[in-house]
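Moderator note: this is an archived Q&A kept for reference. The question asked for a predicted structure of one protein chain; the sequence and the answer are reproduced below.
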Amino acid sequence: MKIIIFENEDKTIGIVIPDGKILSSVSIEEIAIKDTPCGLPFWIVDESVLPIDRENRDLWELDGTQGEPDGYGNESNKFERVI
């Protein structure tokens, strides 16, 4: 499954796991643009990149291996098109 990750301004990692129902109406890119904070880069990655240890989530960091961002968060928290 594909997920969306981004680094918040406080260096914590944001993770968005899209629901299958919404993916039947909009693309994962549209979800990422809407749900990533304004101006922050996001990456669409396979969920296998997440560390298995959820106990220390506040220590997770992006390590640079995800490459160039897939996009950036938008000012609005609404989809740009009507669904």
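Archived answer notes: The first strand starts at residue 2 and ends at 7.
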